[in-house]
Amino acid sequence: TQLLEQSPQFLSIQEGENLTVYCNSSSVFSSLQWYRQEPGEGPVLLVTVVTGGEVKKLKRLTFQFGDARKDSSLHITAAQPGDTGLYLCAGDRDKIIFGKGTRLHILP
Amino acid sequence: DTEVTQTPKHLVMGMTNKKSLKCEQHMGHRAMYWYKQKAKKPPELMFVYSYEKLSINESVPSRFSPECPNSSLLNLHLHALQPEDSALYLCASSQEVTRPGELFFGEGSRLTVL
C-alpha cells in the first residue's frame, strides 16, 4: 500500500508554462515536505508545511497543504529548464514516508 | 553546497570485497539515516541512528552493517554484496528523530557491485 500517491508520475512541458503536481493520501500527516532531486545527487529540501490550509511560496514555486493535512500540491509558475528534476513529497508519521515522485522535464 | 558529505562518490566492488561508505555532518543533528535508492524509485529507508544508537533497522540484510562512531559520523560497511545491491546510497541527517521530516541529504555514493 502506497501511503503517499504523487501525480502525475511524469510531466514534460515547454518553458514558460505553468504546472501543478499533487501529493495525496488517505492518512493525516503532522507535516509534509517537498524535495527536488537532480540525477546523481541527493534530494534537496524545498519546503515543510505543517498547518492545514497553509500556503508557502518559494520564488515561482507555491506549496499548499490541504485543510485536513492529508494532501499537498506544488504549483510552478513560468517553468524553466532549471526546474527539471524529480519532485518527492514526504510525510511525517513517526517515520518518514516518501511518495514515488513526479519526474518533471522542462523543454527549452 | 550540501552540509552532509559522503565519500566515496562512486564505488565499484566485487562480490567478495569489503568496503565502507562514509558520511559526515557538522550541523549538530542528532539523527542520521542511510537510504538506498534504485533508478527511478524513491529513497528506501535502511537504518536510523538517534543519539549514536541504532533505533531503526528496516530488515536490511546483514551484508550491510552500519556504524555510528560519533554524533557527526555514520558509516556503512559492505561485505559479500550482490549485483542487485547496486544503487545510490544516500546519507541524511535531521535535528531529532522526533522531527524527522526535515532531512538533509548528502550527494550520495553510487555503488556498483560486479
List the helices and strands and how they pair.
The complex is a heterodimer of chains A (108) and B (114).
Chain A lengths: L4 E3 L2 E5 L4 E6 L7 E6 L6 E6 L5 E4 L2 E5 L5 E6 L8 E9 L1 E4 L3 E6 L1
Parallel strand pairs in A: 2-11
Antiparallel strand pairs in A: 1-3, 3-8, 4-5, 4-9, 6-7, 7-8, 9-10, 9-11
Chain B lengths: L3 E4 L2 E4 L4 E8 L5 E7 L6 E7 L2 E5 L6 E7 L2 E7 L7 E8 L9 E2 L3 E5 L1
Parallel strand pairs in B: 2-11
Antiparallel strand pairs in B: 1-3, 3-8, 4-5, 4-9, 5-6, 7-8, 9-10, 9-11
Report what the structure shows.
The complex is a heterodimer of chains A (108) and B (114). By secondary structure, chain A is mainly beta. Chain A contains no helices and eleven strands. The termini of chain A are far apart. Chain B is mostly beta strands. Helix content of chain B is 0%, strand content 56%. In chain B, strand 4 and strand 5 form a beta hairpin. Chain B is globular, with a radius of gyration of 13 Å. Chain B starts with a strand and ends with a strand. Chains A and B meet through strand 4, strand 5, strand 9 and strand 10 of A and strand 9 and strand 10 of B.
